[in-house]
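Reviewers asked in the last cycle whether our approach scales beyond single polypeptides. To address this, we selected a multi-component target totalling 1530 residues and predicted its structure end to end. The input consisted of the following lines:
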Amino acid sequence: MISLKHFIYLSICILTLNACKEKSKLESSDKLFETIPQAVSGLDFVNTIIEDEDINYLHYGYIYNGSGVAAGDVNNDGLTDLYFSSNLEFNKLYLNLGNFKFKDITESAGVNGGDGYKSGVTMADVNNDGWLDIFVCKTAIKDSLFRKKMLYINNQDGTFTDKISEMGLDDRSYTTQAYFFDSDQDGDLDVYFVNHPMNFEDNNYIKPIVNNQKSISKESKFTSDRFYVNVNGKFMDKTKEANILNEAFGLSAVIGDFNNDRKQDVYVANDFLQPDFLFINQGNNTFKESFSEYFQHCPFSSMGTDYADINNDGCYDLMIVDMTPLDPIRQKNLLMTQNYDRFQLMLESGLKAQYSINSLQLGSCGESFSDLAFLTGTAYTDWSWSPLIADFDNDGNKDIFVTNGYLHDVMHSDYNRYKLDSLEKLYNAGLVTKMQWINNMPSVKIKDFFFKNMGNLKFEDRSEEWNSGPSSFSHGAAYSDLDNDGDLDLIVCNVNDPVTLLKNNASGDYIRFQFKEKINCQHQGASIILTLNNDKKLFGSLQQTRGFLSKSEDFVHFGIVKGNTVQTVEIKWPDNTYLKIPNPKINTVHTIDKTKGESIKNNPGVQAQFSQVNISQDFYHKENSFIDFKREPLLIHKLSEEGPTVCTGDINGDNLTDLYFGGAKSFPGKLLVQNQDGSFQSILKNLFEIDKTHEDVASIFIDVNSDKLLDLYVVSGGNESDASSADYQDRIYINKGNLNFIRDNSILPTENLSGSCIDACDIDKDGDIDLFIGSRSVPGRYGQAPEHLLLINEKGIFKNEIISYSQELNSIGMITAAKWFDLDNDGSEELILCGEFTPVSIFSIQQKKLINRTKEFGLDERYGLWQSLLIEDMNGDNYKDIIVGNLGMNSHIKADSKNQLQLIYSDFDKNGSLDAILCRSSNSKLYPIHYRDRVLDQMVFLKKKYTRFEPYSTASIEDIFSAENRNNMKTLKANTSSSVILLNKQGKSFETRNLPIECQFSVLQSSIVIDYNKDGKKDLITAGNFYGTDAQFGRYDASTGCLLQGDGNGNFKYLPHYNGGIHITGDIRELSFIQSKKYPAILVSRNNSQSYLLKY
Amino acid sequence: MKIKSILLLFFLSLIACNSEKEVPFDSKNLIESNRALLEIAMEDGFSPPQASRIYVYSHIAFYSCLSKYFPDSLTSLSKAIPHFPELPEPEAGSDPILSSLIAFCNTAKSIVFSESLADQLKDKYITLAKENNFTPEKIASSITTAEKISTRISEWIKKDNYQFTRTLERYTSSKKPDEWRETPPDYTQGLEPHWPKLRKLFSDSMPAYPFQKLPTYSKEKSSDFFKMVLDVHTKSKNLSKEESEIALFWDDNPNVSSHHGHLSHVTHKISPPGHWLNIISQIQKDKNFTIFQLSKAYTYSSIVMYDGIIDCWKLKYDTKVIRPISFIHDFIQEDWKPLIQTPPFPEFTSGHSVVSASAAEVLSTLIGTKVSFTDSTEVLFGNKPRSFNSFHDAAMEVSLSRYYGGIHYMQSVLEGNKQGIYLANYFLEKLNIK
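The resulting structure, written as structure tokens, was:
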């Protein structure tokens, strides 16, 4: 019987039959990709992994890594053919017959790959005869005979002959993938092998790995990466001479130019403890490992890689994938809680900061890279293998495809912490087999990812809408226009499932390029620049061996938005040959003839406007080693790494900037007096040595006793000492003239608040200086609102009168910055405050009271993780605007109106310590962000409730805590983490505008106003990072500073450093203007590091 | 759960119970309860200090409940434990052993994580009582007795500072070259640095063990310290087959990790104090102890092992001695691996040595100094059974096993052994047993 509902539905459909039909048609063609079944394509290849008692995961830890595919036209018929590697069976070569039909010609071609465990495959014209040859890598098997690689030279007649020994490449190393490239630009192909050791048991020993850098073990012959130089058609082993010996578990590499010298460098993605390597090509086939000069961190388990320009700025960007699932439930089941001690030891041992997070490293043409994985939403794609960056929807912006999956969830915590233990005991008792161990491991097929590039560094997950293929364990993948219809199709290798073949039905226009000598090595690394009719530029390059174990097509593909045409195309080769073609036709494959090009000089680029000036060791800030997470395991970042504070003033009346440079706990601050020659001299060392037990977090030069001499107030803070400690007492140093200061304890109240900021104002209008000092947190009790200080100056004695001025102010929350400025031009200052989980708040002085006017100004809805304030009239309307630094949008815990963060706190277990849990809401329920072990460490009573990971992974706060437990629970929230400018509307309200996306890359710690181009319009410089995060979710290190050119109306344009902008890296805390005799400069102060000047 | 029950059956089959006469409740149930407790502790992955706490309070509950019925057979623990609480009298008509078994289960439940496993055991005993035609009144009064006694004991347990120590800062190593630091492969933070803050049972008034200091840290090859470490390294390269077997047999690490690529898994083994409780169970088959003898053996040895670990932990965190692996990696061999995994706490003295020697001293006094026995505890972890001529021989073998295993220096294991005996004797004297 048809239900009423169905009946109505049917009727509507019948009535509007045409519309219904139309809609369903739309829906199917909505999917950008169409899966071509194996029965249609004839691609009957399956990479079958069947484990047994001898060959299994416990024997070879890379047995689930899968296989690859190489796409290339082996018979020069204009159609891209496909070659697949099979780990345990024979490889297969399929000839492309056109129209998505393929023919298996493995047998007749003689290219089955032979015995052994086959891993990566690639194609290159190794012998330079204009025909693609096939290269097969091998690994895993102990007997070296089975690791002899295959170099199938193309006989130009549909057959191939293995000439690996003749060409000098009988290398028996354990190879993941081979990368052919012309290292020395001599016109032939050299080769880099990415290899790995076989010791999968001790891959977590930190010390030996570090030491091994000095003395690589004897086994390195087979385990270190190898480098062979092609000398007249024969390959010579130059591994040692090239300086690339290592003991890392390499899984892929990128060949490309990283330092903008056009020479091809090698980036190697390494699994486990070893950080990735960046081998910068020094010429003469030698390399220099330079990872740290260009990168701030890398994935912990780096797998596949790709290198392409995601924002069409002409600078290449690098993606490296790791293994964290996007789904928070899977995340909580699969991920280990990170151990901070181990993380710290890794840093100290030179193993770099590494996180189990994908990296999407935005390049800056030769300077350092910024990881934008969180900003772009590409941080988590589960256990991932091939990232492929290409324009799949032909809109001119390169999208991202990621394959993923692992035959068994070896990281499933319930399995490896509990079930495996029982199984092992049963195994010892002879009751189960080793295969039963393995078969008990969870095994979940997952979906590959598509991210559509929306422009301006925005990506959207389109896996569903574009059809990323059936769920599978997918590994190697390649893109190629298989049917020559002008869009990129995808070929994906799966374990124990047929190849996924995705036909692209993109509708946009395109333009494609190949090279006359077709595949000749000289074109590797050539970059192509299109200028469209709307002056927009698109950038592409020729790099074929990319992703994981695989090679993509030998073309450079560009999508063009319908209606656009191409003005010019420019090609730049690594050897500095340059070719310009005007008005190329679109929807065409162009063949480029390099011989028509001319030799040019490398463009020197724009002259830098700011230059770095090194300053003395006195400006070195040393952070004390304190791990806040040992006391508060659920803290997401440290509260003990806030310094250095810097304040400036002229303390001796010589019109030169002097300054106080704060010290961390156990390190004295420094009073630095500027000499006539611009250098600084540290004075009164003994005075500050005595006070080094305090952590300096804020400071100000002010005349507290109206004697016309600047005195120094230093705010103590941090999180190291107990909440009642005298270490939190602030200090005043009275300027006695002649560079003599004396600490005066008598004029300050005794207090133990962990401060964060200070600003001065004559609050009670009695002609002297009063002070507001904001507090960061209650030590050991993050979440709880600390009290603050409102110090009223009565004849030189300060009294805290905050309670009489405003109870509300005293309980406003965890404050990070505060300033006094007159916002409504009524002659009386407002107190502007910001903090974590607070709105930007404004209080006005009214008859010895401070009145909260936040709501009146319309600022009460936006709760941020605010960090800094700058008050300045940016649009020339005589009203002060506010620039507010926030956490940024490049964090695991970023917040916006749709993704609110909540911090709940209470003493849930009634043991006296505060339990503050950071949560995200989903379907109107709150879920903790932290993983099980961390939460159970903080609240032991939950160990009884969550003896396993699965129940915790789905538990909401309501599930975890009983209603009674939640009785006294308090909640803080954050609904924005963007840094903003608040434009003052006539002193009545504020218009909130996000600062440019480049300012959202990291924590905005400091900003200053400057008119760098002297156009009379105020510009901004913003900076900041923060390294004190826990070991789990990644530190904030992506900012390289922003120079924002202002238009005088409150709008700002970001200036990249290669266009005259600034480039300042590190854990920046403060920017300060310094006036010296020679030049104006900006002091860039960094935590636990040397500071320096930027002169301009 | 299916795997769990297969395992438990297998464990129990190892402990041959020779009681054919079907008395519903007797020694075999206490052995069974003890085994279940070891299983739960393993299941929950309790570290040796935490495991010792779970064993001791559960056994104290059984012992002191039973002693309420038979004060002449079981001396009150208050003679040795000054803060031991006054316990309520048993209900009329209650069954002594059933009450004591339930008190054991109740107490265990309050301090383990996997509460359901303790409940299962308790339910099993109640079912057994019903099957043996215990009247509902008898069962009810036994449950009430157990409830009252275990409640009082739980209140007493709550005052042992354990909860307080959970709120204290986790351990941060100084990173100084001469002090203990986190060790491979997992670099786990120092375990239970605040354990010495726990309330001791009997040894508060005991004069501290006058230990012999280790040589001063030095990286000079000629120094005694260097020689002491080098000795561990040299020995590790020259182990006989039996010495290797000994090291593995006494590994007793409740959380051994192993790594195969990205698979890092944890093997839960019986902790050192648990191993000794299991030895007592195995001796039962030759000795056929009365329930009183058996409860004394379990309870007294758990008590000395509990205080022994507190004492030892104090020394460990006071002296912060570096583990052999750290020093060897720094100065002798950069890729050296000890035969057994280094546990995550400072080296001096050897905890297993203290535990084993103290238990051996108690058992020698209670059962005899020349009692030979065969220990099959380790079969499930893939090790062959081992036989011993006396408890002290076994304890000395434990000490050597830590040195063979490459996780302790010779002097530390010998000192640990002496420390354990010293402590046990103080206890035995308090109870007037020695």
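Chain B touches chain A through 49 residues (CB under 8 Å). We regard this as preliminary and will revisit it once experimental data from Aim 1 are available.
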